[in-house]
Structure formats: structure tokens, C-alpha cells
């Protein structure tokens, strides 16, 4: 189940070999630029801009890939209480707009200070002293190839109701990324798959999410909509509904796959998706793919 | 800072193309096999067993890689309160031995039930209804190549004080995996690096951790021990201290790199590290690497 959503974005950064200047050593230092009201963000009518650049270094391709695109506005809605809750956690963690107030183990109130030996403020329990750490979450999914087509699911839940996605969702404690991707495919498309190879890792730092996508095959040619899908369908490459996809991460994944297939077999991709500042979650084309490594 | 530790393990599973039977669709159903006292686990004197098998499918290598090894016992110690706390979270989440008792937002007591539309029990606040989700954490690090040598750090903190590791630690909210790996390298080795390419994703389901390791280069040939390191040193491949490494994840990473370098340039690896049941965290050789995908 994909409760993940993608909101707003930080400024695009440079591409190529990837290193940080000293001033960026503290990853949260630039968060004052983030809107405090991401959900209600309005839609600037951005003009389309699209540039590509390739470099080859150290046996891997490095690529700068920038795109923005005007798109219709929609209101973010987590749907059920559970999905809403989970969604809120991601937003608040990334933007630090709301803090953890209580210790989840003893219930004591927390203080927000930098612990000894660390560099970042944490939620420290004033009763038991335990620290609640917040870390990025992994969203795992499958890009399923079958007879030169790709399996997509039309979402039956918010956000992005009625839009197309790869089967994907949050990785659970106790499973591997591949197991999670297989489980999500079963839940969303009633399809049994074999994972064939890793295809992409796409970080979205602003919302504290990392997408891990595997190439997979159907074990048998059966699939049908799960409870969170309106429809599941195989699409030929030229028919992929790029204008009706649910998330930027899915758009990036499918574009990378499409481009790989044009020149040969799929590679493994690493990249960072930075959404354009001031855009809404539904503007899935308003992003830059930075520090793209292909090998 | 690497507060991560690796404990115990589930049963080794089969290798090859990776799919789940229906009975494994719920990833937590087999956790009753896990010891309730992982920290105090004793050390069976396992005999060394080492087998390799290769298959080639769909353009990727699939490999079964099994090894166990007797090793000295040590007691797990999280060191500072903060690291101990973080460590405990990981252990308890994976084994479900202790539950989240309070809502971190409103402080209300939680109930542990399966929410509507989900399949797994969650901590649901009895006051505000919010759900606290627990998800695996990412540990990010760099495998730094310099003049055909590899940079390792000798740990100045527990666990695994005095043992060697790649610079690595928990990925933070607000940064990408590559940024996190660069930050950790700066913190632990005072070294500025450029990330060159992704090298490995290694899941450790039992403790809810995923290691993301990048190949990197020194921007300048300067490094020195950070506050958590006793020493930083460049090792030629043949001098890597395989018997004095801090974690199974580092052993696997360095073995994969070593083997790649023998036959050409490094590839990208995905795999699942399953520790042998009944072994202690310090038994870094007591694991199986399952579902290894190399591409």
C-alpha cells in the first residue's frame, strides 16, 4: 500500500561527480526555505524546460536531467486515518514543521536538544532519557515486464486517486526490500512476481523517502485489481500514460526504463528527485533529477 | 555515526530468482522463531562452511553465498545513552519484543490492533487515533578507493570498539543517501570525498536495517580520525583485515568488492544478509548472503 506522497522541493543542485561543500555538512541547515504549509501550496504555471547532459566517468554514466512542466492542481488527501497519519509523519519529519512531543516508550514529555556527541537536535525524553530518532523511509516496488509490456495499477485511494502507478509501498520491519516489493505487488495487483534485478534507487530528501524499484517478471500471467486499485493493465512502452501518473518517482522510473530500453537492456540507476519550490504534490513533472548515477 | 548493530539471524533461504510463496506474504509471521534475548545470546562453536554457486539470468548474476565461522564472543553495548536507545529501537522493532506504548504526538496510550485495510497490527493512539509506523532504517556509507587501497576506520565507540569499518551511519531526514554517506565519511575520517557510483544495497531484515554503500574517491589525500575513530588507514586489497571487521555488512561489502576487483571493475550488488540463528552480533562471519543480485 503506497501511502507515500511527494511534496514541494528544494532547489535543484549541480550534477556530475557528487560531493558536498563543507557548508552543507549539516543536512538540515537549509530547511528554513521550506514552506510551512506544503499541503495548501498553489500551482505556479511553470513553463516546460528540459535539458539533458551526459558524462562518462569511472565506468558509470553521470547525467543531469532537468524538467519542469505545468500541471493541474489537486488537494492532498491521505484518505483513511492510517494513511493520513503516515503521510503526516513524512511531511513533518522532512520539514520539521511539527515535533515529537512525547516519548513513545514511557509517555514522558520530550525536550528538543542536541545530544552529547551529535550535531542535530533530537527529541529526548525528559523522564527516561531515550531519544526518538526520525529516519527516512523506504518505498519498495516492482517494474514488471511481461511480453514487452509494463504492468501499472490505477489507484483507488488518495492521494492521486485514478492515476497510474507501479505497485509499491512502504517497506516493513522484518522484510527485505525485494520481499516488500513482491508483497506490495501481490496486494495491489494480485500478481505473483519474481524479482529479477535492482533497477533504481531514487531519494526524495525533502519528504524523507527513498524509492527502491526492482525489475520483476510475472510467475504466471494472472493479475487483477487489489483493494487499492481500480484497474491493472499491461502497457506497451509507447502507450505508457506519462500524463496520468501518480507520483514523480514513478515518472522518473518509467522514463529511465523507457530510455534504457531504447538503447539496450536496463541499467541500475541512482538519483535524487528534487521538486521545484512552490509546486504542489500533484505536479509530478515539476522536478529535477540530480546526481544521477547509472551503472 | 554508526550506532547500528547486527544481531542474530533468521534461517537461510534459497537463492536464485527471487519470489515469495503465499505463506510468506505476511513478513512477520515467522518471528516466533526469534530469540527473545538476543543480546545475551551465547556462541555456538560453528564450523566453517563456505559454498558458492553462480547462475546467469536476465542479464544479471544470481549467486548463493553461504558462510559460517567460529568467532569470539562479545557483549553488546550501545555505548552512550543515545546510541543505546537507537540500538534498542532497532532490535525491538525487528523482533516485536517491546511495543510502542504512547503516541509521540499527543501522549495518549496506544492500543495494538490491525487498522482497517491493513494486515499488520500497529500502535494506534487511543486518544487521537494516529498510527505510529515502524519502518526499516537506512545505513549509508562510502567504500573509498585511493591508489588501489581502501580507507577503513578503527572504531572508538561501542559496539565493536577497536574493530575496522567503512565510514557509515544512519541516513538522516532531509539528506539523500549519497549526501549521508559523504557526511558520515567527513565525521568519521575527516575526509572529503566524491561519490562515484552506487556499489551495494544489503538488507538485514531481522534488525530492520538496509545498508547503502557507494564507491567514492578522496577529493584530496587528507584524512584523520574523527571523534568516533581511533585510527583511519588505507589498506591494500590483500591487507584488508577480514578477521577484525566490525560488522557482517562490512565483511560482505568488502568481500564483494574484493571479488569484483579480481575480475574487473566493481558491479552493483543487492543482497539479504541473514545471520545464523543463535549467534551473537560479534560473530560477523556467521551469516548467509541470500538472493544476491549482481548487475
UniProtKB/TrEMBL annotation, chains A, B:
Task: Give one GO term, molecular function aspect.
Answer: hydrolase activity
Organism domain of life: Eukaryota
CDD domains per the UniProt record, alphabetical: NUDIX_Hydrolase
Keywords of this protein's UniProt record, alphabetized?
Hydrolase
Fetch the Gene3D superfamilies from UniProt: 2.20.70.10, Nucleoside Triphosphate Pyrophosphohydrolase
InterPro entries linked: NUDIX_hydrolase-like_dom_sf, NUDIX_hydrolase_CS, NUDIX_hydrolase_dom, Nudix_N
**Where is the Nudix hydrolase domain positioned along the sequence?**
135-258
* This protein's name: Nudix hydrolase 23, chloroplastic
From which source organism is this entry? Sesamum indicum
- What would be the name of the gene that encodes this protein? LOC105162491
Amino acid at each position: 500500500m503506497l501511502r507515500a506522497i511527494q511534496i514541494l522541493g528544494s532547489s535543484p543542485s549541480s550534477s556530475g561527480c557528487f560531493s558536498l561543500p563543507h557548508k552543507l555538512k549539516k543536512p538540515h541547515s537549509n530547511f528554513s526555505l521550506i514552506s510551512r504549509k506544503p499541503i495548501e501550496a498553489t500551482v505556479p504555471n511553470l513553463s516546460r524546460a528540459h535539458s539533458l547532459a551526459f558524462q562518462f566517468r569511472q565506468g558509470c554514466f553521470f547525467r543531469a536531467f532537468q524538467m519542469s512542466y505545468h500541471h493541474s492542481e489537486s488537494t492532498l488527501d491521505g484518505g483513511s486515518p492510517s494513511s493520513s497519519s503516515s503521510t503526516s509523519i513524512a511531511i513533518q519529519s522532512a520539514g520539521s514543521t511539527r515535533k515529537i512531543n512525547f516519548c513513545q516508550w514511557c509517555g514522558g514529555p520530550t525536550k528538543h536538544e542536541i545530544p552529547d556527541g551529535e550535531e542535530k537536535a533530537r527529541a529526548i525524553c525528559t523522564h527516561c532519557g531515550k531519544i526518538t530518532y526520525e529516519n527516512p523511509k523506504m518505498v519498495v516496488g516492482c517494474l514488471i515486464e511481461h511480453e514487452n509490456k509494463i504492468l501499472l495499477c490505477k489507484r483507488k485511494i488518495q492521494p492521486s486517486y485514478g492515476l497510474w502507478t507501479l505497485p509499491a509501498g512502504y517497506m516493513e520491519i522484518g522484510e527485505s526490500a525485494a520481499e516488500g516489493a513482491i508483497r506490495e505487488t501481490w496486494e495491489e495487483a494480485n500478481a505473483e512476481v519474481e524479482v529479477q534485478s535492482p533497477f533504481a534507487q531514487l531519494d526524495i530528501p525533502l519528504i524523507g523517502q527513498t524509492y527502491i524499484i526492482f525489475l520483476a517478471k510475472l510467475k504466471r500471467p494472472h493479475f487483477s485489481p487489489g483493494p487499492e486499485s481500480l484497474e491493472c493493465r499491461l502497457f506497451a512502452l509507447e502507450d505508457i500514460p506519462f500524463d496520468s501518473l501518480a507520483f514523480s518517482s514513478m515518472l522518473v522510473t518509467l522514463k529511465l526504463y523507457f530510455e534504457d530500453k531504447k538503447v539496450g537492456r536496463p541499467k541500475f540507476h541512482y538519483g535524487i528527485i528534487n521538486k521545484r519550490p512552490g509546486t504542489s504534490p500533484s505536479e509530478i513533472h515539476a522536478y529535477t533529477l540530480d546526481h544521477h548515477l547509472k551503472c
